[in-house]
Amino acid sequence: MIVRDRLYDNRINSLNILIEIDIEEYYSLSKDILKNNEFQRRRVGSASSIYNLLKTDLRQGCVIPPIVLALAVEARPKIDETDDKLVQTIIDQKEKLIILDGLQRTYTIRDLINELNERNDPDTNKVLKNKLRVEIYLGINKLGILYRMLTLNTGQTPMSSRHQIEMIYSDYIRENINGITLLKEVDDQAPNNLGEYKFKDIIDGFSSYLDRDYLGLDRTDILDNIKSLEKLSIENQDKDLFKDFLITYDAFVKKMDQLSDGWSLDEKNIRLTGQAFGKNTLKIFNKSQAMTGFGSALGKLLDFKLIDEVKDVIGLINGLEDANITQDLDVLITKLDEVRSKAKKIGNDQRMYFHFFFRELFDKKSDGYLDIGKSINEAFSQYERKTQ
Amino acid sequence: MSLKLLSPLSNSDKIFETIAFIEERQKSYFLLSDSSGEEIRIKYIPLVDASWDPTRFDLFFLDNPYLNAENDVFQVYCDEKKERLGWIFPITVLISNDNDFSDNRNLNRYKYVAQYKLLNDYAKILKPTDVNTDLLITDIYNDSTLICILSRDTIETINDFNFNNYRLSLYKYGYSIFQEDFIRKPVLAKNDFVDEMRRQRLRINLKKAKFNISSNKYVESLFIKHLLKTDDSLVRFIFLYQIIEQLMEDEFNDLFENYLNDYTSKKITKNDFKEYINTASKERDLIKSVFNNTTISIELQREFEEAFSNLFDSLDYKTRSSLPDRIYDFRNLVTHSYRNVIDKETIITELVQIFEDIIIYALINYNKNPIALAEAS
User: Greatest CA separation found in chain B?
Assistant: First the structure.
C-alpha cells in the first residue's frame, strides 16, 4: 500500500488520500471489510452482467476507477501526516473500513481471485500483483459518510437512505451505549428486558426522525435524501444524533415502565377484536411502530422549533406523571385495537397513531402536553380525522 | 404470462417469464428472470409454506369498499359443500405480518399460492425500475386489490361450479369483481354490517343464485356499474325497482300468452279475455306474483316492516301487511309523493338498503325459469 496523493475535503472535514495497492493486498483487506459489515449491500446477481466482463478485463490488467473507502476514526489525521503513519492508521483499524463506492467491483475482484486459486491458474500471481487505486476518507464522521455515499452513488444503483443508515451505525451493536443492548436480526432474540431493542427497529425510528416521516418509505431519491442530510448537518455539529435519539427513546421507555408499576393488560375485562398490541409497557414501546412514531414526531417538533434538540425531550420525559396510568394504558390498547381492525395497512396506521401520540405529548401548544391520557385520546381523534 | 418491464430507452422490453422461489434465513423472495438472465426480486413477507401446487387453485380479483382493511380476512364456504372453498383477503396481507392471520397455517399456504399466481399467471406491466431494488407485490398490483382464492380440489366436487353464479351472494357482503380505475362509492347504511363481520369474524357463505345474472344485461350492469357508482338512495331505489318492473313484465307476458292461447283456442270469450288482461295488468297483483316465485328471509321481512312502519306512521298513511304490498306502497310514495318525504333522508336510506338486500335475496332464490327471463331481456 503506497500513498500517492492527499487532499482535504472541506465539505465533510475529512482527509482524502489516494493509495496504490495490489490486488492481493486489497483482496485481504476487503475480506475483513465484508466480514465485519453485514449490512453492506448484497451483490448484484446475473451471470451475464457487466461484472463478468470486468473479470475478464481485470485478468488482462485493466485499470478500474478508484474504489472509495471510509475510515471513521476519532482522531482526524492532519494533511501533513507522514505516509507511513497514514498507512499504519489504516492497517491498525482496517476492521472499521466501509466501502462507499465499489462494492460490486470488490465482489468481482474476489470472485476472480477465488476462481483463479481454485483452478491453480498459472496467471494467478501475475493478476495478484496488478495495481488498483483506492481512495480513503480518513477521520470522517458518520454523517459525512452518509453524505459522501449519496453523492458518490449518483447515476448508479441507488441505495436507500435507510440501508445506508443501517450500515453506518452497525458498529453500535457492538458498542454499549448507556447500557443499551441492540439485538441483531440474526440473533433471533426478542427484546424482553428494559434497555433491549432490535437494532433494525431503532434504525427505523432514527430514519423516521431524519426523514420526518413515520411511513419509513425506502426512498432512493437522492435530492430528497440530500435535503434531509442538509437539515441534519445543521443539527449534527459535534453531536452524535443517533446516540442522542437512542438514549432519549430509552429514557421514555424506562419512564413509562416506572410509571406503569408492573401494569399488564387485563384480558378478562378488556375485550379486543384481535391480538393486543402489547400486554405490558415494554412490549408496547419496544416495537418499531412506537419508535418510528417517536422519531417522526420529534423531527417535526424540531422543525417547528418547539424543541431545540432531541435531548431536550429527556427533561420532559423525567417530569411525566400519571395518576391514572392503568386506565390510560387500557385505553391505549383499545385504541390500538380499533386502529388494527380498521386499518388498510396496519403497521402504517399504527405508526401514524404513535406519531400523533408523541406530538401531543411533547408539543407545549397541544391539549395533551405532558398528559399521557389526553395524548392517547387526542392522538386517536387526529388519526380518525386523517383516515376517514 | 409474465411481468413486462417497459424500457423507455429502447424498443426492446424485457419479459420476465421464469419464476423461482428462494427461501433464505432472514428473507424469502420470488425471483423472476428474463432470457438474458436479468432478474427482479419480489419480496415474500408472510411465513413460508410452499407445500401446495398453485395450479390447483383459482384466483379472482375483487373489490369491496367496506371490508378492505388488512384484517378483513374471511373464509369462504358455500351451501353445496360443508367444507371451506378458500379465502378472501386483501393483497396487503401479502406484504405484512401485522395482521391477526400471520400464524394461520392454512392461510399461509394460500398466501404463497396467491403470490405465485399473481406473478406467474397474469401479464402486468412494470414501469422502468432498478432491477436491483427488491419489489413488493403491491409495487405491481394496486394495494386496494382483494383476492379470492379457491381450491380446485374442492370446487370441482361441486356440480357445475361457476364463480359467476355466486356474484350476487358475494355482493351481499359488499364484494364485486375488481375493475381497474373504477372507484366504488360506499353506502353509509352498511356500517353495522361491517362491524358485525369484523367483530364476529363471520365466514363468507356463498349461495349459488338461481337467477342467472350474466344472462340479463340490465341486472348485470347494476352490479358491475350503476349501483356501485352511486350512494344516492333515490337513484339506487330507481335502479333496483327496475328489476322488479322487469320481473313483473315477465309475469304479465306469461299470463298474456296463456290467456291469448286460451282465447285463440276458443276456451275463453273475448270479454273474458279483456277482463283477464285488465286484471293481469294490475301492478299490485303482478308484484305479488313476482314474490311468489322466490323466498325472502323472515328477518329481512321484519326489518323492512319495521322501517316501513316507522316511515308510514310518521306520515299518517295507511299500511298494508304483505311484503309485496309494502314494497309497492313505498314505490308509489317515492314515485308520486317524494316531496312529502324529502326531509326523511335517514329512514329512506335505511329502507332502500333493506330493499337492496331483499332484491339480492330474491334473485338468489328466484325459482322462475331463467331461460324465459333471458329471452325476455
Answer: 88
- What value, to the nearest 5°, has the Cα angle with vertex B368 and ends B364 and B371? 100
pLDDT given at position A177? 84
Tally of domains in chain A: 2
Query: To the nearest whole angstrom, how far is the Cα of B96 from the nearest Cα of chain A?
Result: 8
- Domain for residue A166, yes or no? no
Question: Would the CA dihedral through B340, B342, B344, B345 be positive or negative?
Answer: positive
Taking CA–CA distances from B145, the nearest residue in chain A reads A344
The dihedral built from the CA positions of residue A141, A142, A148 and A149, taken in this order, carries a sign that is positive
Residues A188 and A299 in one domain: yes
Question: Residue B63 in 3-state DSSP?
Answer: strand
Cα angle, residue A137 at apex, residues A133 and A139 outer, rounded to 5°: 150
Grid coordinates representing A378 are 387526542
Answer yes or no: is A79 within a domain: yes
| pLDDT digits 0-9 by tens, B322-367 | 999 999 999 999 999 999 888 999 999 999 999 999 999 999 999 8
Under DSSP, the state recorded for B340 is: G
Mean pLDDT in residue range A82-94:
87
Candidates B45, B94, B132, B201: best to mutate against A (most CBs of A within 10 A) is B132
In order of A140, A159, B154, the CA distances from A222 in angstroms are 21, 9, 51
Distance of CA B164 to the CA centre of its chain: 9
Q: Which of A114, A140, A166 is the last residue of a domain?
A: A140
Dihedral pair phi/psi, residue B63, rounded to 5°: -135, 145
Q: Are B209 and B200 in contact (CB under 8 A)?
A: no
Give contacts of B99 with chain A, Cβ < 8 Å: 340, 346
* Angle, helix A199-211 to helix A161-168, in steps of 10 degrees: 130
Say if the Cβ atoms of B38 and A274 lie within 8 Å: no
Q: Strands B146-151, B57-63: parallel, antiparallel or unpaired by DSSP?
A: antiparallel
Task: Work out the pLDDT band at A365, boundaries 50, 70, 90.
Answer: very high
Test B199 with A273 for CB contact under 8 angstroms: yes
The answer on A195 and A307 residing in a single domain is: yes
Q: Are A346 and B98 in contact (CB < 8 Å)? A: yes
Distance (Å) from the alpha carbon of B200 to chain A's nearest alpha carbon: 8
Residues B326, B287 contacting (CB under 8 angstroms): no
Query: Do the chains contact at B92 and A46, CB–CB below 8 Å?
Result: no
Q: Are residues A230 and A129 in the same domain?
A: no
How many CB contacts within 8 angstroms connect chain A with chain B?
Answer: 55
Say if residue A181 is in the same domain as residue A290: yes
Range(s) of the domain holding residue A201: 175-387
The model's pLDDT over B63-95, given as tens digits with 9 standing for 90+, comes to 999 999 999 999 999 988 889 999 999 999 999
Nearest CA in chain A to B39: A46
Q: Does the structure show a pLDDT above 70 at B131?
A: no
Q: How far apart are CA A304 and CA A324, in angstroms?
A: 31
Chain A interface mutation, best of B33, B64, B71, highest count of A Cβ atoms under 10 Å: B71
Spatial separation of the C-alpha atoms in residues B208 and B170, rounded to whole Å:
10
pTM: 0.81
Q: Spell out which residues of chain A touch residue B98, defining contact as CB-CB under 8 Å.
A: 340, 346-347, 350
pLDDT of residue A252: 97
Q: Look at A220 and B38 and tell me if their CB atoms are within 8 Å.
A: no
